[in-house]
Amino acid sequence: MLIVVDIGNTNIVWGVYDNRTLAAHWRIATDVKKTSDEYGILFSNLLTAAEISTQRLSGAIISSVVPALTGTVEYMIQQYFHQHPMIVTSDTDTGLRLCYDNPKEIGSDRLVNAAAAYHKYRRDLIVVDFGTATTFCAITADGDYLGGVIAPGLGISAEALFARAARLAKVEFIRPKTVIGTDTAGSIQSGLLFGYAGLVDTVVKRMEQELGRSVYVIGTGGLSSILATETTSIQKIEPLLTLEGLELLYRRTQPLPPPTMQV
Questions:
Q1: What is the largest CA-CA distance in the chain?
Q2: Of these residues, 6, 18, 31, 109, which one is catalytic?
Q3: Could you tell me which CATH class the domain 104-240 is placed in?
Q4: Least confident of 153-157, 171-175, 186-190, 245-249
Q5: Residue 134, CB half-sphere, CA atoms under 13 Å: how many?
Q6: DSSP states of 65-121
Q7: Cα dihedral 252→74→108→112 (10° resolution)
Q8: Distances (CA, A) of 39 to 33, 67, 70, 71, 194
Q9: Sheet containing 236-237: which strands, arranged edge to edge?
Q10: At what angle do helices 184-211 and 154-164 cross, to 10 degrees?
C-alpha cells in the first residue's frame, strides 16, 4: 500500500492507495509547530481507525508547498512507517514538458495536478485548484505545461475583508438564496461566492483567448465543491486529483518488473 501526502498551506490532504484504488483519505490542518512525533501519532491513529495495518505499507510520496514541514513529514514517515518517501520536485518525471522560465518555481501541487489531469484526459486542459491560493494551469494535448495564473484564494479574500471592515462579521461559505442580499450575511456570501465564480470564469475565458481555442476545464481542491458549480467554465470536478497524481507519479518512477522467463 502507498501513502500519498499533499502538504498545503491550510490543509494536509493524505491517503492510502491499495494498488490503484484509494482505500482511505483524510484532510487535517497544516501546523508547522507540530513535531514529527505528533504527526506520527495522528497519522497512525487515523490508519488504525480505518483498520489499515502499517505492515501493509510499501511506499510513500510527498508533495509540499510548505518547506518548513516537508522534512518533518518525511522524517515522520521514515520513523513511524519505515518508508523513504519520494519528494515531488520539478525534476520528477511527470510526463510533461515544463514550458516555464524557471520550472523550479512551479509549486509541486500544480505539477501533480497537471500530470494527473493530462494522463487522465489527454487533451487541452485548464486545471483550477481552489486552495489557499486559487491556481490555474494550462496543459496542451501534446503534454506541454504552459504555465498559468495564481490568485488569492476565497479564504484569504474573506479573511482580508473581515480584518479590514470592523462591522462585517465572518459568514459561512454557503450559497445565498439570492444574488441581491437582503441582510449583511447574505450580501457577503453573495459577494464572495458569485464574485469569485466570476473571477474564475473571466480568467478561464482570457486564457482560452490567449490559447486560441476552447479547452476542457477541471476544478479541484478543498473548495471546488462549493465554487465550481457556480461557474460556467468548469466542466468537471475532480476533488481528489492531487492524490491521484501522487499515485501516478510514484508508479511512473517504479522499475518495471523483470520479464517472465519462458520455459
A1: 81
A2: 109
A3: alpha beta
A4: 171-175
A5: 23
A6: S-HHHHHHHHHHHHHHH----EE--TTS--S-EE-SSSGGGS-HHHHHHHHHHHHHH
A7: 40
A8: 10, 16, 12, 12, 37
A9: 97-98, 144-152, 133-139, 125-130, 216-220, 236-237
A10: 140
Instruction: Tell me what the mean pLDDT of segment 43-67 comes to.
Output: 94
Annotated active-site residue 183? The verdict is no
For residues 150, 155, 158, 160, the Cα torsion angle rounded to the nearest 10 degrees is: -70
CATH number for the region 2-87 comes to: 3.30.420.40
**Range 107-113 average pLDDT:** 95
How far apart are alpha carbons 228 and 30 in whole angstroms?
24
- Mean pLDDT of all residues in 215-237: 90
pTM of the full structure: 0.88
The span from the CA of 64 to the CA of 25, in Å, is 17
| Strands, E assignment, the chain | 2-7, 11-18, 21-29, 59-64, 86-87, 97-98, 125-130, 133-139, 144-152, 216-220, 236-237
Mean pLDDT across the stretch 70-82? 96
Domain range summary for the chain, segments of one domain joined by + = 2-87, 104-240
> 50 is written with which cell numbers?
480505518
**Each residue of 62-80: b (16+ CB within 10 Å) or e?**
bbbbbeebbebbbbbbeeb
CA distance 126 to 236: 11
2-87 and 104-240 in the same fold: yes
Helix (H) or strand (E) holding 9: none
Closest by CA position to 61, among listed 87, 24, 37, 39 = 87
